[in-house]
């Protein structure tokens, strides 16, 4: 894949993500009408990204959640049932359903965030994130594996601050990263550097940056 093809692939990814805006998006849309290969690239990206933000993962609630649900329910109905109690029972069921969804089956959706590109290295990384950006998922697309004595390390570079390592990633598989440190992601840069096997030993990037994108 030459530089021109890499550029078009990156534009197709940005178009599918919705991050290509303004005049650049209009120019790209005009090209789509006359360049079937470019349209096919967009279709590939849309297929890749579809469903990435529709995950629902059941979460086992702690005991205190069940106590909150029990306290939120109305008192038990009396032994003698009257027609007027039916609305209360219906309301109780609705309250229980809402609380069950809120505390037990909370969605942990990941939405596409950006694409890491590299001018001198093939492939891209599709980055998805939770709404609070405390969880990232990196999916490699046509990323070339590095030599056995090297590792790829992901960094976040907050505005005006030193890079912070988010761990190692591999070109052959997706990687989910939980961000436990208090890091501001606003206007930050995500970057992937080439490091000795096992990662940087200095706490800072020591090798060339292969992929990057500003958030």
Automatic annotation (TrEMBL):
One of its GO terms (cellular component) is plasma membrane. Residues 113-209 form the Anti-sigma K factor RskA C-terminal domain. One of its GO terms (biological process) is regulation of translation. Keywords: Membrane, Transmembrane, Transmembrane helix. It holds the Pfam family RskA_C. The chain crosses the membrane at residues 86-104. Coiled coil: none annotated. GO terms for molecular function: sigma factor antagonist activity. PANTHER family: ANTI-SIGMA-K FACTOR RSKA. This is Anti-sigma K factor RskA C-terminal domain-containing protein. It comes from Pantoea wallisii.
């Amino acid at each position: 894949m030459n530089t021109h093809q890499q550029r078009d692939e990156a534009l197709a990814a940005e178009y599918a993500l919705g991050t290509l805006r303004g005049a650049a998006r209009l120019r790209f849309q005009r090209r789509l009408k006359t360049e079937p290969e470019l349209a096919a690239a967009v279709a590939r990206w849309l297929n890749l990204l579809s469903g990435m933000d529709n995950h629902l993962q059941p979460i086992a609630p702690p005991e205190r959640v069940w106590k909150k649900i029990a306290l939120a329910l109305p008192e038990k109905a009396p032994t003698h049932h009257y027609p007027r109690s039916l609305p209360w029972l219906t309301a109780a069921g609705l309250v229980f359903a809402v609380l069950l969804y809120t505390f037990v089956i909370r969605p942990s959706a990941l939405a596409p965030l950006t694409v890491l590109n590299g001018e001198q290295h093939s492939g891209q990384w599709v980055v998805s994130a939770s709404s609070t950006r405390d969880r990232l998922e990196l999916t490699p697309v046509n990323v070339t594996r590095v030599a056995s004595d090297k590792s790829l390390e992901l960094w976040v570079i907050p505005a005006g601050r030193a890079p912070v390592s988010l761990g190692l990633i591999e070109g052959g598989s997706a990687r989910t990263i939980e961000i436990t440190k208090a890091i501001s992601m606003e206007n930050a840069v995500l970057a992937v550097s080439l490091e000795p096997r096992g990662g940087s030993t200095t706490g800072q990037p020591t090798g060339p940056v292969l992929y990057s994108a500003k958030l």
